[in-house]
Amino acid sequence: CKQITRFIENSAEKLGGNYIICKINVDAARDLSAMYNVRAIPTAIRIDPSGKEILRKQGPQSIISYISSLK
Fold it and tell me: Residue 51: its pLDDT value, please?
């Protein structure tokens, strides 16, 4: 996860208000990681405004590729 932390933080700034990007410590937020069934670290989950999961990516390269595609 440390590998992509800076990338995620920079991406959040660049995307402005179009997306909300959150980094969650799964050890500290076990209930949240269980709620979203996080089984691998890192995991990116895209959730629509109603709370429904619409996309899930796992692994640093997959997440970097996905976040890079956002506009």
Answer: 87
Is residue 69 exposed (0-12), middle (13-18) or buried (19+ Cβ within 10 Å)?
exposed
Top pLDDT among 34 and 21 is at 34
Write phi, then psi, for 61 (nearest 5 degrees). -65, -40
Q: Give residue 42's identity as a one-letter amino acid code.
A: P
Please indicate whether residue 8 or residue 33 has the higher confidence score (pLDDT).
33
Alpha helices in the chain (DSSP H): 2-15, 30-35, 60-69
User: What is the rounded CA–CA span in Å between residue 29 and residue 4?
Assistant: 19
d(CA 15, CA 2): 21
Q: Which of 69, 1, 41 is nearest to 9 (CA)?
A: 1
Tokens matching residue 18:
């179009």
